[in-house]
Amino acid sequence: MSTHLFSHFIPSTPLLQAAMHVFEYKSGDAAGMLPLIGSWSIIAVVILMLYKIEGYKKKEFILLHRIHEQQEHELDIQEAERRRIAADLHDEIGSSLAAIKINLQSLQYSSASDAQRATSLLELVDQTSQNVRRATHNLIPPHFETTPFTSILQSYFTSLDSQGTLAFHYYCNAYQQHFTARQELLLYRIVMELTHNIIRHAKASEATIQLLFCPTYLEIMVEDNGIGLPTAVEQGIGLTSVHARVRSLKGNIHIDSGRCGTTFIIHVPVSCEHAC
Amino acid sequence: MPVNIMLADDHRLFTTGIRHLLGADPTLRVTHIATNGLELLDQLHGWLPDIALIDINMPVMNGLEATRLIREQYPRIKVIILSGYNDAHLIAEAMHAGAHGYLLKDCSAQDLYHTIHLVNAGQTSFPFRPNLPVQNFETDNAFLQQFNLTRREKEILQLISRQHTNQQVADHLHLSIYTIETHRKNIMKKLQLKTPAALMKFILTHPCHSVIFAFYCLVLLS
Question: Where is A172: in which H helix or E strand?
């Protein structure tokens, strides 16, 4: 009787009500205990499941983190490999080609037909060294570490501007050395990949690339007036390496795509030692 | 008197080839050969060359660094960079280091002679680059152009001057509100304005013809 009265003054949370039931059924028969055991076991199962889910979430988080670390590591390996191949290409093949050409030019030919053959050989050497130069540049622009990546982009867009039907506008405000060479390479690759995507897929006639240095972050804004991204890409499929690189820089990316074109806004924070 | 020339390149076959090639011109004479920047500087005692042909990529000390030091210590020596790279930023850096010329390693013999004589005569010679003034932004509004506003930013400025809210601008341009907000922030940064009120004041007080015209139209209509 007293427990009944008591229960009116206590907030009716399920746990408390269950506790009340314990008092109530203490003096009752064994059959009366069944609903009590049932409700308790349900609560126990729910708590167990919640606990399990929490565990899975933690595991998922750890795995995701590991995948991201792996991706970052992969990017670093890829860049190191590119650098090595570019150096080999330039130092071994490029230099040898130059030496071949210079020596071919200094030879004296006894007959006109020999001279003719030498000329066509020279043309072939020229063509090959141009190919080597282009391949090397695509792997990594020469002397990247000692040049601000914004000036490399500037000369790239200037060279693009004079050809093709797609007009690129490039703007960078005052360059500041906020980032390490590794970070600058990531930033350069992000801009280049977005640019290549515009050239390949966007069907745009105009594109604007802006790099705005702010005191605490760098904003990269890439706009085009093309057909917009496929829905799958918008939802995060594709552009994997752009996402991985942005993540590696601890930045964030905002994609705004529609039938009038696509806008990428990327913010990359300046690390503390550079900002202060 | 022949022109005395110094070569610096880490590929012996290349320097030998250049030497043979230059030997064909009686007015040119190769006097020094080095395989890296440091060796080159070590050789510069007493008898100085008139012209140094230097490669960029060399071990120990690269060509750009060597050029800087030569120009500092021996300003009489003229430097021509002879490189495998054809990149605008490297050509600019060579100029900056004080070089008088820049030649690609796969240039023709004629170009080589020509450049050497040109530089020896006191001129400079760099690869031609169509370095057009980059027409990033339209020239219709000279006043706005000094702020480096993009076409999109001017468009948004116009819509703001018509009292459009961010949402209305976003709908009009088929963009998200976040993009418009970012653009707005960038416009304010480029115009060096701090508050939205300052932006309105800027629109009203500055001669941004098309913007003002649109605004007057609105005033007249309402």
Answer: strand A167-172
